[in-house]
Amino acid sequence: HHIVSDAWSRAPLARDLTAAYAARMRNAAAPEWAPLPVQYADYSLWQRDILGTEDDPDSEITRQLDYWTHTLTGLPDQLELPYDRPRPAVATYRGDRIPFDIPAELYERVGEVARRVQASPFMVLQAALAALLTRLGAGTDIPLGTPIAGRTDEALDDLVGVFLNTLVLRTDTSGNPTFAELVDRVRERNLGAYAHQDLPFERLVEAVNPERSLARHPLFQVLLTLNNTDYQGALDSLGDLPGLRAEREPIESSVAKFDLAFGYTERRDPHGRVTSLHGVLEFSTDLFDRRTAGALVDRLLRFLDHAVTTPDVKVGDIEILAGAERGRLLELWNDTAREVPRRSVVELFEERVASNPLAEAVVAGEEALSYEELDARAERLARVLVERGAGAERFVAVALPRSVDLVVALLAVWKTGAAYLPLDTEYPAERLAYMLDDANPVLLLTTSDLTPVLPEEPAVPRLLLDTPETTEALSRPAGDRSLTRPALANPAYVIYTSGSTGRPKGVVVPQGALVNFLTAMRDRFELGAGDRLVAVTTVGFDIAGLELFVPLLSGASITLAERDVVRDPAALCRLVRSAGASVMQATPSLWRAMLAEDASALAGVRVLVGGEALPADLAEALVQRAMSVINLYGPTETTIWSTEWPVTAEGARRPRIGRPIANTRVYVLDGTLRPVPAGVPGELYIAGDGVVRGYHGRPGLTSERFVADPHGPSGTRMYRTGDLVRWTVDGELEYLSRVDDQVKLRGFRIELGEIEAVLAGHERVAQAAVLVREDRPGDRRLVAYLVPAAEAVETAEVRAHLAAHLPDYMVPSAFVTLGSFPLTPNGKLDRRALPAPDYDQGTSEGRAPRTPREDILCTLFAEVLGAGSVTIDDDFFALGGHSLLATKLVSRIRTVLDTEIAVRRLFEAPTVAELAAVLDNATGTRKPLRATVSRPDRVPLSYAQRRLWFLHRFEGPSATYNLPVALRMTGTLDQEALRLALADVVDRHESLRTVFAEDAEGPYQIVRDTAEVSLTVTATDEEHLPEDVDRASRAPFELSEEPPLRAFLFELGEDEYVLLAVVHHIAGDAWSMGPLAQDLTAAYAARVRGAAPEWAPLPVQYADYSLWQRD
Question: What is the rounded distance in angstroms from the CA atom of residue 748 to the CA atom of residue 878?
Fold first, then answer.
C-alpha cells in the first residue's frame, strides 16, 4: 500500500527480495545483510524534530508555510483545458492510458537544452508541457503537480517507506518568452520549490484553502512525473533469482486521479546509460475522449521537437498543428464560395415584383399591399426623397411606426441610391440626437404623431409622411428623370450599436454585403409564395433586415407585428395563429415567453433563433414544438448572421452556432492570430463578403476591430468579434463566452463599459461597475455597483440619469452602493466578490394594500420579482423588473385575476396602486373554461392535437410521440384489481378513450362511451426486461382505430413486477402523468377493497377544452 511504500522503494524491495530468496534457496538460511541504519519510524520522529511546530515563528515548517502561501497567492482554481465534456459535479476517477515514446535523438536534444541553461531534463519537459497548455487555452498561469522523492538524507536510500511529497510547480508563460527563457523561469521557480519540499501537501491545501470541489483535484489538475531512478535496474536484479527468469508484467489501470497525468520513465541500456524516455498519458474519461488525449500527445511531441531544436524561438510561434489539420481548419471548413447576383437588394426586389406582381407582400394591421402596390408606393416616395437630397453615399433617417409605410420607406430610400438610418423612437432623445448628429442624414422621414418624441435637430430637415403637402407630392406623376439604383459598394444602412466608450458607434453595411446575406438566407430557407413571416424585431436592431427583406426576395409575405403585440406573448401567439405564420425569427428570450404562454402556437412554424446564446433546455423545447429550428449567430459588423446551425433533437443538449453561411470564412485564432486546434477555445474572427465598411466617422476604431486577414486573399479584412468559441471535431462552432465586457441580454448587444461610462458621468458617483448576474436560474439582470463621491447618492437619481442617456434595456435592474470595491491581490476589481443585490428593497414609506385586488397584486409582484414583500407604491421596474418579467407578471395576472391586460399597461402603470386602478376600469376578461352543456356532433381537435395529428398522418404511425412511464412494484399484486382500476381511469378521462377521424372539414375527435384497455401480462427476467420494455414502448398507435393508452405488466418472479403505461402524446403530456398516476393509485386501492373508486367528477373534459380554445 502507498502508505508504506513509494516508487523509490521498489529498488531496495526488489534487491532485498532477490537476496533473501537466493539465501533461502542456497542453504535454507536467513539472508545475511547489514542492519539498516534507520527505520521508517525513526524518519517520522526526525521529520517532526526538523520541521518543528507552526506556533514557533522561527521553525522550519513556519518558514516553508510562509513561502508556499506567498508563492501560490492568486493561483487559478482550475485549468481550462480542451475538454470534450463538461466536468461532472463529482469526479468518478475513471480513466484510460495512452503510451508513447520520446526517442533517443529527441531526448538527447532535451538534455542539451537543459545543460545550456543549467536546468534538468525534467524542467525542459515541464516548460514544454506548460507552454503547450497555454497554447491550448489554459492561460499563462499554469500550476503543475509533481511528486518528489523526499529522501533528503542518504540514510533513507535503501529504506522501504513513503517519503514522497507533492509539489505545486507554478509556471509563468506570460509575455510570449522564448523557449530557453521559459526553461530558465521554470528553473528558478522549481529550485525555490525544491528548497521548501518538506511541507506536506495536505497541510499546504489547508493553508492555501482553495475553493473546494468534489469535481477536481485541489491546486492543480495536471500531474507531471519523471522517474529517473534505475527502476529497470531494480527489476533486472530479479533476474538473479536462482533458477528463474523474471520480467516485468504491465499492469493496466483504469483509474485517473487527475484530469491529465504525464508520466515519463527513463530507459537504460545494459550498461545503465539512459537512452530514451517512455511516456504514458493517463487521462480522465469524465472529460476527454481517447481521440482527444491522443491528439494531445501528438501535439506535445511536435511542440517539444520544435522547442528543443530551436530553443530561441518564442513559444507562441511554435507550430502545434499538423499540415492536414491546418488545412481543415482554414480551408475545408470554410469552403463556402457561392455565386451571388451582382445587383442591389432593391433591384432583386423589383425582379420579384415582375415575376408575381399581385402576390401579397406585406400586411400590417388591417392594411395589406401586393408586390406591385408596394413597389409603386416606394417608387413615388423615392422621387420625393431625391428632390430632398437623397442619393448615393448619403443617409436618410427613418422614424416610422410598424406599418406598411415603414417597408415602403426603406425600399424608397434604396431606390434613390441612399442608405437608411433607422431610429427607434423609444430610445432616449439624447441618444437619438447623437445618432442624428453623428450620421448627418440629409433628411428625417417621420410622421406628425412621432414628432414630439424626436429630438430637435434643426440641421436635419424633416419630411412628414402624413401632411397634405407630402400627400400632394406623392400624387404627382413621375417625371422623365430616372432613379439611380445603388452600387454594391454603396452603403445600404447604418446601425448604431453600444460602444464601450459611452458613445454608440454606427456600423455602415454596404449593399454587396447585404445582398450576399439575403440571398444566402433565401436559398437556405427556400421560402415561397405560400410562406408568411411574422416580423417582430424593431427596425433599429439589424436582424430586422432578415424579417423584412428575405421574404420580399423570395415571393413570400411579411406580417408586421405591432410593438405592443410583441411585448405580449399571448397576443403574439394569437397573431402567429391568425396570420398562418410559417416562419418567425426571435431571440431566445421571446421564444421562451411564447412557449410558456402557448407552446402549441409553434406547430408548423420554422423557428429562427438568434441574438443571444441559445440555452439547451430552450433548444430541446423548441425542437419538440416547432417544425424546425435554426440557431443563428453573427455580429452587426459582418451583416446580421454569419453562421447557422440546424437544431436536432440529438444535438439540442449542447447547442452550437454551426457553420459559416455562403461566402463567409470563420477563424478561431489565438492571441498571435494563429489558428487553434479543434476543441481549443480561441477568439472568433469573421472574413468574407459579409464584412462591412466599418464604423462611421471612427477610422481608429475601425482599424482596431477590422484587421488584415492573414489567412485569406491578399487585401481582405476580417472582423474581430470578441467572442470566445471553439471548433468541434466535426467542424461546427460552439459559443463559449465573451473575451471582453460586451454582453447579450434579451437579444440586445450591450457594452458594459458604456453603462459604466454614463454612470461615472454622474457628479455623485466616484466609481462604477456593471455586470450581468443570474441570481435566480434563467433570470439574467444588469446590476450596477457604485462607490459614491463625498456625499451619498440616491438610486432613483442615478436611475433617472441613466434613463436620460441610455435605452431602457441598458438601465440596470438593481443598484448596489459600496464603500469601496473589492480588489484582487494584483489590485484589479474582483468582480466575483461583488455582493448579490437585495431585490427586496421596497420604499420604506410605501403603503400597504387597501383592497383584496391590491393585496393579490402585491403578492404577484413579489413572486415574479423574487422579493420578500412589495408595497402598493413600489415601482415594478425600480425593483428589478424588465420586459421579460413584465410578460410573466401579466400572464400571472390573467391567470389569477381572470382579467385581460396588455403588457404596455404595466409600463404605463408600474406600481400596484396604479395598476389596480387600471384593472378597476378594465372590461376585458377571458371566458372561463367550463364544461360544455351541449356538445356539437363534431368536436374539433385542440391546436396542440392538430399538430400531432398532422405529424401522425405525415410520418405514418410511429413511436416518436409515445409517452411511456414504468413503475417497479414489489409485493403481492392483485392483477384483476389492476385491470379494473385501469378501466376506471379510462372511464374517468375521456381523452384516454378518444379516437380521431378526418373529413372534408378536417380532423375531429370521437369520444367513445367505453373503451377496453387491455393489460398485457408477460413473464420475463432482469436480463431481458429492458428489451421487452423498449419493444412495448415503441409499438406505434393507430389513432383512428384504438384508444391512445396501453398497459403492460412484466412478471419478474414472485412478488416482483414492472407496470408500463404508454400514452400517445395526442392524449397527454408530461404533466398528465401526475393525475394519471394519482387516479390509478386511488382506483387500485378501492378495487383491492372490493369497491369502485369514489371520486368527485372532473369539472371539465379535454373536449371541453378544445371547444373553449376555439371560442
Answer: 20
